[in-house]
Amino acid sequence: MSVKTFLLPDLGEGLTEAELVRWMVAAGDTVAVDQPIAEVETAKSLVEIPSPFEGVVATLHGEAGQMMLVDKPFFSVNTGGEDEAPAQQPAEGAQTYLEEELAGTQVPEEEDEGSGNVLIGYGTGGAKTNTSRRRRPRAGITTASASSETTTVATKVINPLVRKLAKENSVDITQVTGTGPDGLVLRGDVEALIGQGSEAAAPSVQATAAPVAPTQAPAVAAQTTGEDSRTALPVASSQVLTGVRRTIANAMATSRREIPEATVWVDVDVTKLLKLRSKLKEAQGSAPSMLALISRFAIAGLARFPEMNSRIDTEADGGLRHTLFEGVNLGFAAQTERGLVVPNVREAHKLNAVELSAEFARLATLAREGKAGVRDLSGSTFTINNYGVFNVDGSAAIINYPEAAILGIGRVVEKPWVVNGKIKVRSICELTLSFDHRVCDGGTAAGFLRYVADAMTDPKAALAAL
């Protein structure tokens, strides 16, 4: 009997874990190559995992609701051969994501010299030499024991990605109680404290959960009964945020914490724009959506006010780097059953209104079905949020971090409006622009918003100038 084990693959952008939503097969079922085996939810999207093997399912290495780690056994299939095949392993010389998380818990006595393949975040290595040198412990790491072969170190955290996450969220990493092997602080330990403020990292408020197995989620059951200690009210339900909901919460908190934002708004007469769209639909049988038409004006405005299409990054030394882009990856907020996501149209500046409308529809469908990929849900440089679909007029939207601005579109309502000194009934829409005050002053932001508003007021003239 030959049993082949499939390891959970890298699902994109350095994601190290995924929540197992459901198995689509059971042990003993016959499966074919590329047949969907399971659904998992990452921080980005819902993903179907297909089988690379043909045979009979031998073992399912997890249960619904469990957090599964990349590069760990996911399921095993009996392919019917004679020899037992080992589980798939990463390419020779490469680190698995779990190894990356635990990297540095043991430091070799001998340092490699020379240059080898670059591993993200860790620099280069090379072939071993006969020269033996004891590596000095890094700052914050104390030597626990030593032998002629290796030096084992006791450390709270070693992964630079975890350190970076803690630094960006003002978490004192030296005071976090880790749930990894030997108290190692893992990414989940830091994420659990994000949003709780500085008190969460104080020694008196350390995490008390016992260490858990690497392939298991921390055992936090949903609280459905009892009384809340702070309010004295009965608890209806209480559960830890996971998946997309946790990602949304972290992104919103990071945006508010990192970006000093300001908001400007203006009411816009869109009567002519609605009439133009109506005429296009009558003449051609279809017309671009209002979102697509406004987006086309916004893209043209970004070319004139490039600060709105930029990003501020914090350098290692604490300095700020301002990056402006040639071209636009246009994000748009989409409400789905799994929460708010931001698909983005790549190189939107190359598309006309009709093409933009088609891309919005395609990506929105993928997002609602949970089939949008990592590339579809990341990499935007400017975002539009059409909250008018919720029948509200305005909102000071939170910027989609790390972008510099977000344009909000309110509902269209009929209002009395002064036109050439006379009061008339017009279709009015409110635009709001939240922007990072570090990239520009209010005059630039107002100039961009005014450009988009004027284009919406007189669309024929605007389209002729594009």
UniProtKB/TrEMBL annotation:
Q: Where is the Lipoyl-binding domain?
A: 3-78
- Cite the PROSITE patterns for this sequence: BIOTINYL_LIPOYL, PSBD
Q: What class of enzyme is it?
A: transferase
Asked if the keyword Protein transport belongs to this entry, the reply reads no
- Show the segment(s) annotated as Disordered: 106-147
Which cofactors does this gene product need?
Answer: (R)-lipoate
Q: Does the keyword Acyltransferase apply?
A: yes
Query: Could you tell me the keywords of this UniProt record?
Result: Acyltransferase, Lipoyl, Pyruvate, Transferase
Q: What Pfam families does this protein map onto?
A: 2-oxoacid_dh (PF00198), Biotin_lipoyl (PF00364), E3_binding (PF02817)
Q: Which residues form the Peripheral subunit-binding (PSBD) domain?
A: 157-194
**E.C. no:** 2.3.1.-
Q: Which PANTHER family match?
A: DIHYDROLIPOAMIDE ACETYLTRANSFERASE COMPONENT OF PYRUVATE DEHYDROGENASE COMPLEX, LIPOAMIDE ACYLTRANSFERASE COMPONENT OF BRANCHED-CHAIN ALPHA-KETO ACID DEHYDROGENASE COMPLEX, MITOCHONDRIAL
Can you say what this protein is called? Dihydrolipoamide acetyltransferase component of pyruvate dehydrogenase complex
